[in-house]
């Protein structure tokens, strides 16, 4: 056996690493549990393997000491295999196995004798060659026997024991398989291949790692499960390797005929491969066929559910101005899962009939009016089954689909499947899937996944429909609220005019009354005009139109407004200028005063107080009327359309609070039943709002 200096250095490094790895695993097993018989045998075998690898690294393979250690190592691993039968109690009932174990051990024990004979008669070349052939054959026979024994160990184990034996069996199979390959080649070639001999250290290291994994207490739960991407790449590499091997064999075979047949064959293969790549590799049909075969034969499940769910979530959750509408995304999500070439989503229209709401890569489909009859809708809601149109065309009628599926769906051969979208047993929509590039029959896994995804899509679509309905209801609510505000203001004007008409019957001859009546009528007309101008401002932001407002002047205008209607008095008038919307603040104050007037007895005045604390201005509306209970103030006062007055709209206090809040202020209420009520409007002073805050000044200075 001769190796180049590079391979000699590689063999030294690999054997040294293998010795260290075997020794470490032996120490780990000894510290963990050395009481079990198979563990003790494994520790001894790993220790002998470490010694053998260290000998190969020190003096090189092929020495007498290395050969003796290899025999000891092999015998130890045979004992390990025998002891592993004890995992499920088969060590007491394996009488047929013991002759095989003894035979393997006997053959291995012949190795030292053959080695010593080869050394003693090394001067005779023919005898040396015979000794080498016998040694290689004995090594191969031991490997075969060990593999047979290992097969019996794993194949006859129970399901639970296989989970435990998986990793040790893989390690032993790797070692014995490599040894069989090495010595078979050596026997045929009459020389030990140096490269394969140098790589034995790598094989031993891998086996030691597998033993370490098997020693883990959770080894039974560890599974080697390559992803579909890795599997497809591995399959591609195997196909490429098979192509290269076929090309090499054919070209070498033709080269035996003489001439340039070998080179001609290689060029022909290259030309054929280029043509195949240009014609077939871009084909979606070919890629689909390869994927279908790989999924069918390489995996227990057709779908990688984690990848499918991530893709589904990414498609449905796509956002942005350029993102398709939700119905289009829903159609694409189902088509991606089924590898369909297109999809159409049918949702109920205004009349309740299903119609096209979204599509993906299928604009040309012709969907007639009333595309889904009531029988099909009833079948979907009753069974929730995914309908495969090829089965319907073939005459299948398991769920009554022959009578339910309309004729236009049967006639369009591109339609492949119908997926119902059910939400709480109600049909939200139907997805029509186009035929995939490679036609196949749906199986149980397709049906289950499409049902689950259909239910998830139904929940998204139902949520969107509910959101749209809520938005529309909010728009109508805003419209109704504006109308209610208008009616409330008109009701206040009507009350004032009615009171004015009653007083006119008594005081029509009084010139002062006629003067006040004229003023009141003028102000009522102005108020109606202002009401019309304010209709567009309800619901708008309160920052528009904010300016400096004199609270005292505003309070005096309100008191004058109620002259001749009900006594309203300004009892305190501190100088106070706030930042507010003049019209909105006056409207809020009129609401509060009107509430005080309505709650008070005739002739009992309502008082207005204007105060200032240096930061905020306050305007109080105080009456001595009926008052309100704490429960009514907490639960009903500021709720629209809830009123304690007969015929009231429940709008005044609510609108007043919203108007004040929109200006950056607040409205507080303090009421006692039988004593009266105090409303307090607080607003920021105009001077304070105009000055920059301390933090702003500091930040600008910084």
Automatic annotation (TrEMBL):
Catalysed transformations (reactions): ATP + protein L-histidine = ADP + protein N-phospho-L-histidine
PROSITE patterns, alphabetized: HIS_KIN (PS50109)
Keywords tagged on the record: Kinase, Membrane, Phosphoprotein, Transferase, Transmembrane, Transmembrane helix, Two-component regulatory system
EC number: 2.7.13.3
Pfam families: HATPase_c
TM stretches of this protein: 6-29, 41-59, 131-155, 167-189, 201-218, 230-251, 263-283
Protein name as annotated: histidine kinase
One GO molecular-function entry: kinase activity
Domain of life: Bacteria
InterPro entries in alphabetical order: 2C_sensor_his_kinase, GAF-like_dom_sf, HATPase_C_sf, HATPase_dom, His_kinase_dom, Sig_transdc_His_kin-like_C, XrtA/PrsK
SUPFAM superfamilies, sorted: ATPase domain of HSP90 chaperone/DNA topoisomerase II/histidine kinase, GAF domain-like
Primary enzyme class: transferase
Residue ranges of domain Histidine kinase in the record: 485-687
Organism field: Tsuneonella deserti
């Amino acid at each position: 056996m001769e190796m180049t200096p590079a391979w000699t250095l590689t063999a030294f490094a690999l054997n040294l690493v293998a010795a260290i790895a075997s020794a470490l695993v032996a120490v780990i097993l000894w510290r963990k549990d050395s009481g079990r018989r198979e563990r003790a045998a494994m520790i001894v075998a790993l220790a002998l393997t470490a010694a053998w690898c260290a000998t190969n690294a020190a003096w090189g393979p092929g020495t007498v000491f290395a050969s003796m250690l290899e025999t000891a190592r092999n015998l130890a691993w045979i004992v390990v295999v025998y002891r592993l039968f004890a995992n499920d109690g088969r060590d007491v009932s394996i009488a047929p196995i013991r002759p095989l174990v003894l035979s393997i051990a006997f053959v291995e024990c012949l190795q030292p004798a053959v080695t010593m004979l080869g050394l003693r008669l090394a001067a005779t070349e023919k005898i040396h060659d015979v000794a080498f052939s016998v040694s290689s054959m004995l090594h191969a026979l031991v490997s075969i026997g060990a593999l047979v024994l290992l097969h019996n160990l794993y194949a006859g184990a129970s399901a639970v024991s296989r989970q435990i034996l998986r990793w040790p069996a893989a390690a032993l199979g790797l070692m014995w398989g490599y040894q069989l390959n090495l010595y078979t080649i050596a026997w045929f070639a009459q020389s030990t291949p140096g490269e394969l001999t140098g790589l034995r250290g790598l094989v031993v290291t891998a086996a030691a790692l597998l033993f370490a994994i098997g020693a883990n207490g959770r080894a039974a739960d560890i599974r080697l499960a390559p992803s579909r991407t890795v599997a497809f790449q591995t399959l591609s590499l195997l196909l490429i390797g098979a192509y290269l091997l076929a090309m090499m064999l054919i070209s070498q075979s033709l080269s035996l005929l003489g001439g340039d047949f070998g080179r001609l064959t290689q060029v022909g293969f290259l030309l054929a491969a280029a043509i195949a790549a240009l014609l077939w590799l871009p084909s979606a049909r070919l890629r689909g066929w390869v994927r279908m075969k790989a999924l069918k034969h390489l995996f227990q499940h057709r779908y990688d559910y984690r990848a499918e769910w991530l893709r589904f979530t990414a498609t449905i959750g796509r956002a942005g101005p350029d993102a398709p509408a939700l119905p289009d995304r829903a159609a694409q999500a189902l088509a991606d899962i089924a590898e369909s070439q297109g999809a159409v989503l049918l949702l109920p229209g205004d009349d309740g009939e299903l119609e096209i709401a979204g599509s993906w890569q299928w604009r040309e489909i012709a969907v007639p009016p009333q595309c889904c009859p009531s029988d099909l809708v009833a079948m979907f809601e009753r069974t929730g089954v995914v309908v495969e149109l090829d089965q319907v065309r073939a005459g299948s009628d398991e769920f009554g689909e022959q009578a339910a599926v309309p004729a236009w769906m049967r006639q369009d051969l591109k339609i492949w499947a119908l997926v119902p979208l059910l939400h709480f047993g109600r049909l939200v929509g139907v997805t029509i899937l186009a035929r995939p590039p490679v036609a196949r029959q749906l199986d149980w896994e397709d049906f289950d996944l499409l049902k689950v995804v259909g239910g998830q899509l139904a929940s998204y679509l139902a949520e969107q429909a509910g959101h749209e309905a809520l938005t529309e209801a909010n728009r109508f609510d805003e419209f109704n609220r504006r109308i209610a505000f208008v009616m409330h203001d008109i009701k206040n004007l009507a009350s004032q005019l009615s009171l004015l008409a009653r007083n006119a019957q008594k005081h029509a001859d009084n010139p002062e009354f006629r003067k006040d009546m004229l003023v009141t009528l003028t102000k009522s007309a102005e108020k109606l005009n202002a009401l019309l101008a304010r209709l567009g401002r309800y619901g708008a932001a309160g920052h528009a139109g904010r300016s400096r407002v004199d609270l005292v002047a505003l309070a005096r205008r309100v008191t004058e407004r109620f002259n001749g209607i009900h006594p309203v008095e300004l009892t305190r008038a501190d100088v106070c200028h706030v930042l507010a919307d003049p019209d909105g603040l006056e409207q809020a104050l009129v609401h509060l005063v009107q509430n005080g007037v309505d709650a008070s007895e005739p002739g009992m005045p309502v008082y207005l107080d204007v105060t200032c604390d240096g930061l905020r201005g306050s305007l109080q509306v105080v009456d001595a009327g009926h008052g309100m209970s704490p429960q009514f103030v907490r639960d009903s006062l500021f709720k629209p359309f809830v009123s304690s007055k007969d015929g009231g709209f429940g709008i005044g206090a609510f609108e007043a609070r919203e108007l004040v809040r929109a200006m950056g202020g607040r409205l507080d209420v303090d009421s006692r039943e039988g004593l009266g009520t105090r409303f307090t409007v607080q607003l920021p002073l105009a001077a304070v709002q105009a000055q920059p805050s301390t933090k702003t000044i500091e930040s600008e200075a910084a």
